[in-house]
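Hey,
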Amino acid sequence: MLTKEKAADIFDRVRRFSSADEVEAIFTGSRFALTRFANNTIHQNVEEENSVVSIRTNFAGRTARATANQFDDESLRRAVEASENLARVQAADPDLLPMPDAQEAYGRTGETPVAPSSTFSAPSSRFFERTAAITPADRAEVVKDIVSVAGKHKLTTAGIYSNSESEEGIFNSRGLANWHRQTLAEISVTMLAEDSSGWQKANSPDMSNLEPARLAETAAQKTVESAHPREIAPGKYTVILEPAAVLDIVGFMFWDFSGVAILDQRSFLNDRIGTRLFGENINICDDVAHPLQAGCAASACNWSRRA
């Protein structure tokens, strides 16, 4: 896994290779491991690790990116050259903002805030060593407990248990150097009977929040209680969805709220800003400080500004 120190060294070399007015490097990396089970048996165990640097160069409003996942001098030099060659043939963007410096990234320019101060009490870290340290044997023990719940209810179970650690960071020629690490664990459980099923899912940066036995019991209870389904007449029915189900539905909309998606005219919100789209009973907020939330919680993560 990359560290901030290793990334800083890579960026120093990127700067030496570049002749652009401004240069930026965004680093992303992850180690992801997953155990998959079906028919009450583990049938897959995989792990992968990768790190990527995305290099953006800017010549007086002409900007472009190129990426590399190898960090030797030759690979970095080729990526910088590709970014600069692409940037030079772009039309200048009059709306392109300069790359932010360290003060701007934290919402400050001198003494004048450029972004509203957060009212959330966000956690100081979303990296948990106990989540990163989960082994295949640890995941197998959890799956064993889930299968035990299925056996108790005479059901068949399938699902996944995964854990990951990731980092992201940004360095630019205006002195910005920010870094974020986090972990994430996720369990998804499906219980199956002859004519019914039940499902439950949870994820968290801290694996101790997952409670796999409770997830399994909830999925089993749904399966038992939904046995022998019958048809109902077409019509309007009130349906109450659990948080995990709501997330899977609402999650498809998240990317469309991005300013870049709106600018690129690929959001369902284009030409609808200020228009009511949902009923007054729909109230959705993003609580950056929630303990189950993933991603960087600090204002300093608002790094790249329309990059």
